[in-house]
Batch of 4 targets.
Target 1
Amino acid sequence: MGKTARLPGALVVGHAQHEEGVRRLVESFRRVPAGQPVRLAKKTSNLFRPRASSSSPGLDTTGLTRVVSVDPDARTADVQGMCTYEDLVDATLPYGLMPYVVPQLKTITLGGAVTGLGIESSSFRLGLPHESVLEMDVLTGTGEIVTARPDGTDRERALYRGFPNSYGSLGYAVRLRIALEPVKRYVELRHVRFDSLAALEEGLARISEEKVYDDEVVDFLDGVVFTADESYLCLGRRTDEPGPVSDYTGLRDKQAIFYRSIQHGGPAGSVVRDRLTIRDYLWRWDTDWFWCSRAFGVQNPRIRRLWPQRLLRSSAYWKIIGLDHRFDLGNKIGALKGEGPRERVVQDVEVSIDHTAEFLEWFLREVPIEPLWVCPLRLRESTPAPGLDDDPASDRPWPLYPLAPGTTYVNIGFWSSAPIEPGAAEGAWNRRIEEEVSRLGGHKSLYSEVFYSREEFAQLYGGEHAGRLRTHFDPQGRFATLYDKAVGAR
């Protein structure tokens, strides 16, 4: 992983090619008739909420899917907005560098993670993906490209602060310059068992603050909750020390499943160690889409043996999910088995560290879904200066997802379905979860189905500030509002 590494040509475009891609994007924007919604022409998506159908042509992003350049001395990369993290990581690892935060699924794009708030096991020390952005070029609703910077003009600062969690309601990033951090060849893992949710919460809080456990540095931190009395924290340490490594990608051991490797039968505090290459660590969750591959039978050894290795990845499961969305296959198959309809419950929520055990206890008692992913996060200490119409007295640097600086939050992810109870309202399970998260002062990510009223949504996601941003960057309403994108016409 030296500085002289040569990257595959398919990963990198030159500046001239990038400018040509931007030109095609802007021209496709201008071809959309006034009054018709503007959307991306994407073949893939990591959204679980329905996307509004449209007869208008989508924006041409075909020339905006690569890395523009990597500067190993400055530890930065210029990246096109539709570049996937899989390609981005393959471009930076040869230099011994990685993005500060690499979301778990290979097909998540950098622009999508910044506008939609990605998270991963480095977030307890490095925050969220948008916090490592040094500048970004954004196609706004006026059809112009605005370079958003934390130290730019009032207008540039306003867009820089307002873009995270805007989900395309303010525009689309076409180029982002991001900071990179050094990595080592391997990640040494410790899977630590906990027998109570209170102890898990205390462990998350202590390690997030001290970044050490049992006198050993912790560079990566997340975990899995199986039951109220069986949960684990997965502690990662970067290392160049040689030694054997495990493989959960299916290349060497097709039967190996990462989340199952975490479990062990020891007492509370017991530790099982493992080692992965840095690349395999970054994609440890993608092979089985955390544990969601079990819904397709892929964790059955007999089926897994026959499943093509190239399809052991989240993008393949997404195609199956797309068919289910279109034809309601899951409920139809369930009906043949004599089972009732089920509601999709696919969410990531954030609650403060002091409410983590309380939420987990409620969830495991009330919602028939397991396991759960836990991942602590904390905003970085640097705060961009207020921009146009920003409240200079506000201590919330990212107004559309107003997390508080100096507070440790825990992201809790659950991705499954639950039986629909007779007479239940639409989205009954999701509504109950939303109510509990709000009661505890938390938030939920907006990539999945949302049922908040307009008033509650405004309180949680920027309120009037989102409207003021649109007057500057989308005065003609070419893009859907954040509420309409997330909630729609419910």
Target 2
Amino acid sequence: MNRIRPVLACAAALAAVATLSACSDMAVGEQGPEHGQPGHVMLAATAVPGVGAVVTDAAGKTLYRFDKDMAAPPTSNCDAQCAATWPPALAGEAAPMLKGIQDSQVGTVARPDGSKQLTLNGWALYEFSGDMTPGQMNGQGVNGAWFAIAPDGSKVTARPAAGGSGY
């Protein structure tokens, strides 16, 4: 019976270390919200077979950049009906949590309505209304101007394999 207590203490210590180390690769800023709390936004680098790494949001949806925007200075040229089809990825109340993306490359640009849209290496980030589930890349190459964005802010020109719509 006396041997059970040290085993239980070791198990509890291992669980605590595992929990802390699981969060260590995400940058949240010193005053960032806890994971899953209001104001929490996440950007992650996600590997797509045959395509490479693309940036996704907390729901696993692919994020895109628009060739008619500008990176320097960051400028969004997608408003009104365009923004209905390509909803802007809005900034949360605190710095976004990042996985596989450098925090120095993430910023914001002011939208006409006063909201702040996330940028990556200066490029405004958007979702595509035609992506219904995580892993879809239905917006890839639309009108020759919309492309998934890579973790470094460059545009991804590859397309998912035929029959596959993502990761």
Target 3
Amino acid sequence: MKPRELLGTAIVPGGEELRLYRRDGDFMIVLGGNELMSSRMSGSEEALALMTCERLHGRAAPHLLIGGYGMGFTLRAALGALGPKARITVAELVPEILDWARGPMAALTANGLDDPRVSLIVDDVAYAIRARSKSYDAILLDIDNGPEGLTRAENDRLYSAGGLAAAKAALKPGGILAIWSAGPDTSFTRRLRHVGFKVEEDEVRARAGKGARHVIWFATA
């Protein structure tokens, strides 16, 4: 097996160092000893977008907020599922991730970042949530490793009762908060319900029909 090639590093504000590696045609973003994401395993990130879009019931001009660009799989899937009148705001905290998307990982983006339906915010998605009231048809969060985060302590506020209440206030009536996680969390499911969401919890695979089992919560306001 060929060794990994280090392509770049980035410091997560308030957190640790991310490293971008390439091995042959595969890319990996790594934090310490944890592989946060890999281009080999995009299934659950795509499902986050596709399953959310299905639940929007054909809204003609939905506005989605995606928190965490990652490797762009969620954005690319959403763009493919939505019509020309849709709007997608992407909030990414680490600017180097967007540089990597336009640089060594450009083939993965399918020019999604330049789609006229897309606007970018280089900031914490929590600010994009709190700055808007009843504005989004859906908020998709793929931040950290889910409610039990790894990269920065500040991410916990997104998944606290206060953070979930802010997300609910930012959604239009019947809007959807969709949250990706590396694994289940029964206390988090209870927290969503306590805030007033109607909650569905789905298990999805990291790859088509195989790979690790991830969890997506679909919480309807």
Target 4
Amino acid sequence: MSSPIVIEPLIRVENLKKSFSAGSSFSIKKKEVRAVNDISFEIYEGETFGIVGESGCGKSTTGRTILRLTEPSGGKVFYNGQNIFELKEKEFRKIRQDLQMVFQDPFASLDPKKRIGYSLEESMIIQKVGTKEERRNRVLELLEKVGFNEDHYDKFPHEFSGGQRQRIGIARALVLNPKFIVCDEPVSALDVSIQSQILNLLKQLQVDLGLAYLFIGHDLSVVRYIADRIGVMYLGEMVEKSTTDELFANPLHPYTKSLLSAVPIPDPDIKKERIILKGDVPSPIHIPSGCVFHTRCPFAMERCKEEKPVAIHVGENHEVQCHLYDK
């Protein structure tokens, strides 16, 4: 009898942590901001893993830390089985081509003084890829793939709309033929009509090029459209993780339920109970003891205030971090 085929993830995140120092540099006792606290997940080839949560929950920091745009405070990130946090800068540069990012603000991520053609070629120049003619041809090919033509090669960023600039940002991320792209709220600054165009472009590119995405967003309807699996973050912790269909059909964590209750339904005949959370999100400098959500949770028990819940598997692809499901 043959053994089952085990598919290894392209990206595996284990117990990732990232903290920042807060307060004045002259302070005797420095305060610590726990932006990301001990989260784990996997992303497979050709898959989109979405991360959702309120502003300040650590979504973007997670994406930037995975790519080592900011150095981690702890944990491991494996790319094709290799822990990239252990690599020296020179070693990491060899695989950096495979790991790219699409930023939230396309205008801020482009040099206003550089023509689009040069901005897209720059990463190839740094990595010493191809001749000048080969680099130009590669950029023209990508511009066409994202909906532009040769005339746009010599234009400046200010000559494009927000949606067009985001297409350029996507083209720049694709220049080095990556395998994995972090999409950091790539449509949040765009009009709704333009959002759908960018999302459809990302999905088509994923099919054509076999890309894996980490898609970060706060709009659940957007993440639902593009993600295969979703992780819900609150105050730096991943409180629930599931396939997209399962999460929307059977949300378990009280925070996930409150987020989903806020998603509008385009049918006036369907009545949905809105779950309003009381209080504000605690400061990341003063993280609550026990469960980080207990200060706002309508089901909080004494145990929640003292004991931090562990991730519990409640199904084949469903994991929740909550004492309500700890049997």
